[in-house]
Amino acid sequence: MAASAFQLRRLLDRLPTPRGELRADAPLAKGTWFRVGGSAEALFRPRDIDDLTEFLKAKPADIPVTVLGAGTNLLIRDGGVDGVVVRLGKAFAGIRVEDDRVVAGGAAMDVNVARAAAGANLAGLEFLSGIPGTIGGAVRMNAGAYGRELRDVIVSADAVDPRGGRHALKGPELGFTYRACAIPESWIFVSVTLRGSRGASGAIRTSMASVRAARAESQPIRSKTGGSTFTNPTGPEAGGAKAWELIDRAGCRGLRRGDAVVSNLHCNFLVNDGAATAADLEALGEEVRRRVAENSGVVLHWEIRRIGKHDRAFLARTPSARDEA
Q1: Which of the residues 1, 94, 207, 217 could staple to 126 if both were Cys, CB 3.0 to 4.6 A apart?
Q2: What's the pLDDT score for residue 180?
Q3: Interhelix angle for 110-119 vs 201-218, to 10°?
Q4: What span, in angstroms and rounded, lies between the C-alpha atoms of 57 and 79?
Q5: Alpha helix ranges (H) inside the chain
Q6: Residue 195 parent element (H or E)
Q7: 179: annotated active-site residue
Q8: How far apart are CA 306 and CA 290, in angstroms?
Q9: Domain 230-302: which CATH class?
Q10: Is 312 a catalytic residue?
């Protein structure tokens, strides 16, 4: 249920006054690739790192914080997000090259990091041009594509914890696993250092072009989508099959729920084909999981991050959703 004007005013009265932007009842849907979802009770765009840390230090501990990147691999539920949503802006999007290293702010887009490396004749980061989103989000999920992952190239990351403490983390401290890291989700990655290797400009740019072409050919990049929906299973029951193969075998390619549809181009992608709601997309994903488990015995796990509350209509028709994490 949406917060009342009184509740929103009370929340803002309890929050510290930052130098950056702080808004109540801020719509979030347009900032996501799916273009669905409710509003944030409060949306905070810090002016700089000091503004961020000071705000978090002064914020009451009982008010939750949720961090959003570029909204690519994300589904915001229709009931919105409680507490404060933090979104890093231009102040956190800088990129610089130092010898064989690229230092990027947490809000820098992955493709821009790849381009900066290519401009400095640094090879090894071309795969980032095929990953939509920010580099901070890429660290959070150990993003990977075309045979490489963040853990292959990361040197260190700087993060801010929920109480405003700053942490410099070396690569091994991040605890990378497949599409995950060990750092709590409430921590905010504000800067990342990656290592490349000297290469020939032509070869690097050819590699990047190949990544872009492969992505355009195999993924619905011009649709309202959330990227790869489920992680590839790693257990022996999958027999080495990727998530999309299991989805295809279960007859889910093109499966539809309202305007939510399983992509015909790549069936590990869900697409908002018009006016789908977050509930439509999540319910379709759960139906895909059910059919795959029934067909193959493999339980798929969501790669898309799902946050926020279900709306009242969804809870009315799906009472068990009240107990979901």
Answers
A1: 207
A2: 94
A3: 160
A4: 28
A5: 5-14, 49-58, 110-119, 135-140, 201-218, 243-249, 278-296, 312-317
A6: strand 188-195
A7: yes
A8: 18
A9: alpha beta
A10: no
Is the CATH code 2.30.40.10 the one for domain 93-215?
Answer: no
Among candidate residues 179, 257, 289, 305, the one labeled active-site is 179
Kindly list the strands in the beta sheet with 39-45, ordered across the sheet, starting from the edge strand earlier in the chain. Answer: 21-27, 39-45, 81-87, 65-68
The C-alpha atoms of residue 293 and residue 103 are separated, in whole angstroms, by 42
14: amino acid identity, one letter: R
Distance CA 302, CA 214 (A): 23
Residue ranges covered by each domain of the chain: 5-90, 93-215, 230-302
Nearest to 52, CA basis, from 18, 102, 3, 90: 18
Tokens 């064989």, located at residue: 100
Beta strand residue intervals within 7-131, DSSP E? 21-27, 39-45, 65-68, 74-76, 81-87, 95-98, 101-105, 122-123
Among 129, 191, 207, 228, the one annotated catalytic: 228
Q: Name 13's Cβ contacts closer than 8 Å, sequence gap at least 6.
A: none
Is 5-90 assigned to CATH 3.90.230.10?
A: no
Q: Which of 41, 149, 282, 303 is catalytic?
A: 303
- 268: which DSSP letter? T
Q: How far apart (Å, rounded) are the C-alpha atoms in residues 323 and 325?
A: 7
Q: State residue 5's pLDDT score.
A: 76
Q: Which residue has the tokens 């070396």?
A: 170
Is 210 catalytic? The answer is no
Please report the pLDDT score of residue 323 as a whole number: 42
For residue 315, the model assigns a pLDDT of: 59
Low-confidence ranges of the chain (pLDDT < 70): 1-2, 313-325
pLDDT at 325: 37
Please write the tens of the pLDDT for every residue from 62-85: 999 999 999 999 999 999 999 999
Two structure tokens written together for 140: 């959070």
